[in-house]
Design brief:
- By secondary structure, this protein is mainly alpha-helical.
- The protein contains 13 helices and no strands.
- The protein has one domain.
- The protein is globular.
- The relative contact order is 0.14.
Length: about 230
């Protein structure tokens, strides 16, 4: 696959990642154990299709369990004064929220986990919805580190894909930075629960960014290639 053709794959992956977040927002953690059991049974069937379905079922079950564990930490963490001060700082600055989202995602290697934690803190009123949206933008930046690490030691094309992912999410965050308050308000009109509101905000963000970039995918690919070329000269 040529590098210019991978831009569409990256955009689709960004949208697809929202599906898991939407599932988590519906608070279906009670399905975690059944999904794990079904997934394990499917993994034992020597057929490629059933094995693939087993991987999906088992993986979603693990995500639900992890999200439930992260949500259970919200109460104990909120009782510490340092946590209260930390979120007060985040609530007072959108830039701080983006920074926190990027740093936490870099550490845990999962934007879904970071946004899931933000959902829990919004529910406990430790975070405002605007702060949650800012953390979501930062989480989309932080998740690029996974692709960047995977590209280290790989070929030039793989590094270009990682750089394209970083540029896409950085430019998306810059585009939506002035619109954080609007996105938070708009998403609040789409659902009753704060978890669904933040999940919808993430979905809207990724779909809008993808639709804006898609008509210029090849031009964007050339932009990334030129930046990589000038960096190689230095």
């Amino acid at each position: 696959m040529q590098f210019k053709h991978t831009i569409g794959v990256i955009l689709g992956a960004n949208i697809g990642s929202c599906f898991t977040l939407e599932l988590i927002a519906f608070e279906m953690t009670s399905l975690a154990i059944p999904l794990l059991v079904i997934g394990l049974l499917f993994l034992l069937i020597p057929k490629q299709l059933w094995y693939a379905l087993g991987c999906v079922s088992f993986g979603i079950g693990c995500i639900f369990l992890a999200m439930d564990g992260l949500a259970s930490l919200t109460g104990p963490l909120s009782s510490f004064s340092i946590t209260h001060d930390f979120f007060q700082w985040t609530n007072s600055s959108h830039f701080a929220g983006i920074t926190v989202g990027a740093l936490v995602t870099t550490i845990v290697q999962s934007s879904t986990a970071t946004i899931g934690m933000a959902m829990s803190f919004i529910k406990s009123q430790g975070l405002t919805m605007e702060s949650g949206v800012a953390i979501m933008l930062g989480a989309n930046i932080g998740t690029c580190l996974t692709a960047y690490i995977a590209s280290i030691g790989a070929g030039a094309s793989a590094r270009l894909v990682a750089h394209a992912h970083i540029w896409l999410n950085l430019l998306g965050a810059l585009l939506f930075y002035p619109l954080i308050a609007f996105l938070a308000h708009f998403s609040s009109l789409l659902a009753d629960t704060t978890s669904l509101q933040l999940a919808h905000a993430s979905t809207i963000y990724n779909i809008v960014c993808s639709l804006l970039v898609l008509p210029f995918a090849y031009a964007f690919a050339r932009f990334v290639e030129r930046i990589a070329f000038f960096r190689s000269l230095n």
